[in-house]
Specification:
The structure holds two protein chains of two kinds. Chain A is an alpha+beta fold. Chain A has seven helices and five strands, in the order αββαβββααααα. Helices cover 29% and strands 18% of the residues of chain B. Chain B is globular, with a radius of gyration of 19 Å. Classes of the chains: A alpha+beta, B alpha+beta.
């Protein structure tokens, strides 16, 4: 490393800039979102993010994900597919996990949002964060914030009696590893740390029961 | 995404009026399908009317002994509702067979009915598609059609309807309640709600400009064993290749609706009539008029096998 200030973020940004000089065969729809065009009226949005009230002026096209990452610099939440297929962008809004890439920030005016940064802190990890570390529930870590936000909600959904596709009796919703696998299917891990992710979630569920 | 203006509707009437008066306006509720399509510029609304704050999120009993489901009830809440779980189990089962937990938390009852096809040619703006761009042709007819429809299709379009929820709604004879821009209300039987492609595959429902769905009403519960069997490429979070919604009565009668194979949620009375004769008879009746391609003709035997599996499960329960 020649610079004192090399960060993973900086490297990624450099990589993206390099790639942009290469003639692209990509279809038009793969192009990144256009910057706010002149004349697009900005919309005021108020959110409570991880307990902190924030006021934003946003192009209505801004997804909740981009508001968190680009405007609030909360880059823990990741952009994977940007189409609701991978789950890397999962955050908890008004107590429910959602794909932040498939919703507009303006639709959430007044809502409370919890991101991975709000679940725990490095010195005081959330039990689910701790369990992912203990059970090695990741390799590259890119999907991990989404996995953890999803996992925290999954345990609450089971507790609330919300059935899933593998629930045998719709009136008897209970924790099982099959339930975890089914309910976590909206979070893809390309490193395939799945078995350790299931172990981490099961561990937290066990603690919660005791 | 193309630029658009945004407003938050404060009443159903105002939303309907705004939608009818602004060219290119669309309602947005959960947004999980619409925003996906807007990012791909398959949908390019000029104005979004956010209907999320209109209430319309209650589930209540009707005087007729049925259930009125608000248009904005989220898929998760509908699947988990105690009355739905107890009396309309097939609906609960169909809902949890669809999408992912995150998407079900956002997706709404009305939005689910209105979701667009997942035909790969509809989704790729470089390809011809009569549904996306009327008159441009159909890339799927001689292309990749493995996932596409075999019933209700036309020379212009063989797109499948992707919903699981709507298949259960079709089985249960739901009705779609709407309010038009002029305030007129109507109740549309779900059998008539979705249109077959014919020569106009871009017209997918009977909804008129500005008309907004306010609720979906279910008639009295239908007694019997409620089941929803979905066959897909992955065990979870994938669209159906074939799905069967069924209610088996104690006397050998049954009723069926099918997903993954139709241009709209599919059901015919001949299939129900064939119920006492078993899976093959039901499949033959349901598949009357089926038109397959080289890639999706496997769906015909798959329908029969899915039914056979359900019959076996039924026998084991008895």
């Amino acid at each position: 490393m020649t610079s004192d200030h090399v960060t993973r973020r900086g490297l990624f940004q450099g990589g993206a800039a390099l790639a942009a000089t290469v003639p692209l065969m990509a279809p038009a729809h793969a192009a990144p979102s256009a910057p706010a065009s002149k004349g697009t009226p900005m919309t005021a949005v108020e959110l409570t993010v991880n307990g902190r009230e924030v006021h934003l002026q946003l192009d209505p096209r801004t997804t909740l994900l981009d508001a968190l990452r680009e405007h609030l610099k909360l880059t823990g939440t990741k952009k994977g597919c940007d189409h609701g297929q991978c789950g890397a962008c999962t955050v908890i809004v008004e107590g429910r996990r959602i794909n932040s890439c498939l919703t507009l920030a303006v639709m959430h005016d007044g809502d409370a949002v919890t991101t991975i940064e709000g679940l725990g802190r490095p010195e005081a990890l959330h039990p689910m964060q701790k369990a992912f570390v203990v059970h090695d529930g990741y390799q590259c870590g890119y999907c991990t914030p989404g996995q953890i936000c999803s996992a925290v909600s999954v345990l609450e959904e089971i507790k609330a009696g919300i059935p899933s596709h593998v629930t045998e009796d719709l009136d008897k919703v209970a924790f099982s590893e099959d339930e975890v696998r089914e309910r976590m299917s909206g979070n893809i891990c390309r490193c395939a740390a799945y078995s350790n992710i299931v172990a981490a979630i099961s561990d937290v569920a066990g603690e919660a029961k005791a | 995404m193309k630029p658009f203006t945004y407003e938050r509707a404060t009443s159903v009437e105002a939303a309907a009026k705004a939608a009818a008066s602004v060219q290119g306006a669309r309602f947005i509720a959960g947004g999980t399908n619409l925003l996906d399509l807007m990012k791909l510029q398959i949908e390019t609304p000029t104005h979004l009317i956010d209907v999320n704050r209109l209430g319309l999120d209650r589930i209540e009993k009707t005087e007729e002994g049925g259930l009125r489901i608000g248009a904005l009830v989220r898929n998760t809440d509908l699947a988990a509702d105690r009355t739905v779980r107890r009396d309309y189990g097939v609906l609960s089962r169909a809902l949890v067979a669809g999408a992912s937990g995150q998407l079900r938390n956002k997706a709404t009852t009305a939005g689910n009915l209105l979701q667009r096809t997942r035909c790969p040619y509809f989704y790729d703006i470089r390809m011809p598609c009569n549904k996306r761009k009327p008159g441009s042709g159909c890339g799927a007819l001689k292309g990749m059609s493995r996932s596409l429809a075999i019933l209700g299709v036309s020379d212009a379009c063989i797109a499948q309807h992707p919903s699981d929820m709507a298949v259960a709604m079709r089985l249960l004879d739901a009705q779609v309640d709407t309010v038009a821009a002029d305030g007129a209300k109507r109740a549309i039987p779900i059998a008539d709600f979705h249109l077959l492609p014919g020569d106009t595959p871009h017209q997918e429902t009977v909804l008129k400009g500005g008309e907004i769905i306010t609720s979906v009403t279910l008639p009295k519960p239908i007694a019997g064993t409620h089941v929803y069997r979905k066959v897909r490429d992955r065990a979870s979070y994938a669209f159906a290749l074939v799905s069967v919604a069924a209610i088996f009565g104690k006397d050998g009668s049954a009723r069926f609706a099918f997903g993954g194979i139709g241009a709209k949620p599919w059901r015919n009375s001949q299939a129900d009539a064939a119920a006492p004769q078993g899976a093959k008879a039901v499949a033959d009746a349901a598949l009357a008029g089926a038109r397959t391609t080289e890639h999706n003709d496997f769906k015909k035997p798959l329908v029969e096998r899915t039914l056979a599996s359900l019959y076996r499960q039924q026998e084991a329960r008895a």
